[in-house]
Amino acid sequence: MTTVTVLKPFRDFAKHRDRVVGETFKATEERARQIDAKLPGYIAYVVEEKVDLSKMTVAQLKELAAERGIEVPSGAKKAQLVSLLEE
Q: Contact 2/29 with Cβ under 8 angstroms?
């Protein structure tokens, strides 16, 4: 995953919405590169390290989900947490 920060406003036709200065969103590295190629200078992005979620504990997975703003169902098992985080 990649964290994208909007530097100049633009219309995100793939998501059918306007992006505003200062907004951050998650995208694949490929998508971030495509936006940057079509609109140079409109975004900045950071490619996150690939994390092997299966090696993390349930507590670590829940913490990561909270950081990403993902709601975790009560009593979620590790496999369900990994699935939610990989979406």
A: yes
Rg (CA), the chain: 15
The rounded distance, in Å, linking the Cα atoms of 4 and 31 is 10
pLDDT digits (tens, 9 = 90+) for 12-61: 999 999 999 999 999 989 999 999 999 999 999 999 887 889 999 999 99
Q: Could you tell me the maximum CA-CA distance found in the chain, to the nearest angstrom?
A: 45
The tokens describing 56, both together, are 């993390």
Tell the burial category of 31 from Cβ atoms under 10 Å away from its Cβ (0-12, 13-18, 19+): middle
Cα separation, 12 vs 33, in Å, equals 14
Cβ–Cβ under 8 Å, residues 42 and 6? yes
Domain spans, the chain: 2-47, 53-86
Task: Please report where in the chains the tokens 């990561």 appear, as a residue.
Answer: 64
Compute φ and ψ for 45, nearest 5 degrees.
-145, 150
